[in-house]
Amino acid sequence: MTGRVPPLEIVSSSTGDDQRIGGSTLTTATTRDVARAWESFAAGEDVEEGVRPEILASWYRCRDQYEVDPTLNVAPGAPGCNDHRLDNDVIFAKLGGLGALAGREVELDGGVVAVTDGAGRVLGSWGDPSARKRAELSNLAPWSSWSEQCTGTNGMGTSFEVPGPVTVTGPEHWCEGFHQWACAGISVRDVVTGSPIASINISRWDAPMSERVPAWLTQAAASVEQDIYRRTVAEAKSVVAEFKQECAQESDPIAAIDRGGNVIAANYGAVSLLGMTNDSAVVTGVVEPANRWKPDIPEFSAVVRWATSRALERAQWSGHARLAVRPGENPVPVTMRPVIASNHVVGMFCVFGLQEGEPYENDSQAAAVSLPRRVIGVRNDRLVLLAPSEIRYAEADRNIVWLGTDRGRIQAATRGLDNVEELLAPHGFSRVHRRFLVNLRRVAELERGVKGELVLITDPRSHELVPVSRRHAPEVRRLLGV
What we know:
It is built from eleven helices and 21 strands.
């Protein structure tokens, strides 16, 4: 692993544009502008420019959603529970070896390298002894919590919220007590679910970060994610093997899914029920993550998350939910059974038409969570603050979500259509297609497509068309009263 990652250099050459103020090597004309913006924002005012979009989006999360105290100068201790997957210990060991190696390389440059788990809990730190002692004054030490929810904008916590590496310099940190630090971090993500497993971060006290650091972080994360990919393929092979044995005992329609709710294998009954063709690759089993099939079933992702969390507590667990599997038909019972390998959940069997085990109850409190006062978008180098009423629809392009708004097409700061749906559902938005959410209050016209499919028009002036999948069409008609 380490052979694929180049040596780490964090010494940053000074530039002639830097204007040192007050003796701090972090205080430049640019950071002074950011500091003034931070003071206004922390006092409750809104800021739309002068701060990098990813940092400003983080500030909004910290102030309006997480309510992190901006005067904080010490990270809180992390909960004592250990809730990560057992096999992730291997990933942490690899990251720890990489962190220790990088720590030796940056020791003479005053750097500190830290590794966290997916909740932002520090697992280990390495580097310059004096810098580490100073970092420990802020509780940058094992089993402290550096998620955005706990400690505001910082390299470790903010890396969980954005793709790729993120740098946080001086007053870009949400908490004032960390304004003399520069840091850069990147998350290591699960190939199946996209959720963060860990992060690696580099910090320096009162010194800028080299522009080479983000590239190093990218290569370091990629080297670890290669191991996660290989593990993911191995998991799928074990699920397919057990699926073949299960099919010999089960006559009902049955599908095997991974931890993210993607279909890996299905018998002919399930293939027909889910609307796939009999020559679909899932009939024989699919191990390549990119080739797996995502069911377009309302609430399916939520049920999978619920079943996985319950199965973690008890390996012999089973549960059931009622899902609208066929468009326009009544919901059918679906029983979920975990697939266990090496003492952890690697997938799930979905048996359609069977009602067995613990019943699923929709979390009616989801709409009662603290909602953002605005939806945050990014356009060019500027953050755009949107009222939900300004958004007509949301369209997914893999993990990137584009918002069709009264101010043009804007990229959402939040990744993943499921996450955007969670934010917008309380404001009258509904999933109408695997790739689309629509603001039902903004639907102006309905149209039939060339093959009889339903199409929504949200802006008659531009003839803006939002497709409705056959699966979602009956519910959309009901909600619109047509």
